[in-house]
Specification:
Blueprint (H helix, E strand, L loop, with lengths): L4 E10 L2 H20 L8 E7 L3 E4 L12 H6 L3 E4 L6 E4 L3 E7 L9 H18 L5 E3 L2 E6 L6 E11 L2 E9 L19 E2 L2 H5 L5 H15 L2 E7 H12 L4 H5 L6
Parallel strand pairs: 1-2, 1-12, 3-4, 9-11
Antiparallel strand pairs: 2-6, 3-5, 6-10, 7-8, 8-9, 9-10
């Protein structure tokens, strides 16, 4: 029986969007370079679990018209806007949302992005189920949804990028998110469906740390992997060593104005 793939799950707390995007790129490059060496080096895969201050991101194939307010108006409210390199359209990240960035070498899992996305959806569906919420897929639409047919509400959005089968970006899982921000965009370019959160559906606050642990356990099962969880200082130490980036915590700190 082959050894399980080793995945380091790093929980970072609330971090700025731009520097975290750069961190993803650094980790992706490390994984690509390691496997392309004359004598390949096997590095653990990395998952980043975190939260961002308010920010809208527009995927490379997205429609800028789906941002319904002027960028200058966002700046006055301390909300960032980034055009980025993932697939998908526009979405929101902010407090109360569990963001997951998956830096995985699919050469060591399965080289199929469709299968990969379905696996990411599965870990969220199972997590919602553990909290008593029936969540599911909607045919033809990426993401995790709840509600009856025709009135579905998206609870988790996905957008990914892959280079040489090493992935980055990932999921935005609404736990206790201020859903009013979604009124400033056409979420994921979908105009005929709504957005929701776990707290909204359950009518109760969410324990982010407990949900994070639940989701990590389902990731381990769905991807058939061995997971090591690192939090706070231990997570920053590991990532600093991996990327050879000093003062990583300071680099990722949220600006005081946010």
């Amino acid at each position: 029986m082959s050894a399980l793939e080793h995945v380091i799950v790093c929980s970072l707390g609330r971090v700025a969007y731009g520097p975290t995007w750069d961190l993803q790129q650094r980790i992706q490059r490390q994984l690509i370079d390691a496997k392309r060496r004359e004598v390949p080096r096997i590095l653990p895969h990395v998952v980043l679990l975190l939260e961002h201050p308010p920010v809208f991101t527009l995927g490379k194939s997205g429609d800028a018209n789906h941002l319904l307010v002027e960028e200058r108006a966002l700046e006055t409210r301390g909300v960032e806007f980034h055009r980025i390199d993932r697939g998908g359209d526009i979405t929101f990240h902010g407090p109360g949302q569990l963001v997951g960035y998956f830096l995985l070498d699919l050469d060591r899992f399965k080289r199929d992005l469709h299968v990969y996305l379905r696996a990411l959806e599965e870990i969220v569906i199972r997590t919602c189920g553990d909290y008593g919420l029936h969540a599911r897929r909607v045919r033809g639409r990426t993401g995790v949804w709840t509600g009856s047919e025709g009135t579905e509400r998206k609870i988790c959005a996905f957008g990914i990028r892959s280079s040489r089968w090493v992935t980055m970006h990932g999921m935005a899982f609404n736990l206790d998110t201020d859903l009013s921000y979604f009124g400033h965009i056409v979420p994921c370019g979908i105009q005929d469906r709504g957005v929701t959160s776990l707290a909204e559906e359950l009518g109760a606050p969410c324990d982010e740390r407990a949900i994070r642990r639940t989701l990590t356990g389902h990731f381990e099962d769905v991807f058939v992997a061995k997971v090591t969880e690192l939090e706070d200082a231990a997570a920053y130490r590991y990532l600093s060593t991996l990327t050879q980036q000093a003062n990583l915590r300071h680099t990722l700190e949220v600006s005081p104005r946010l």
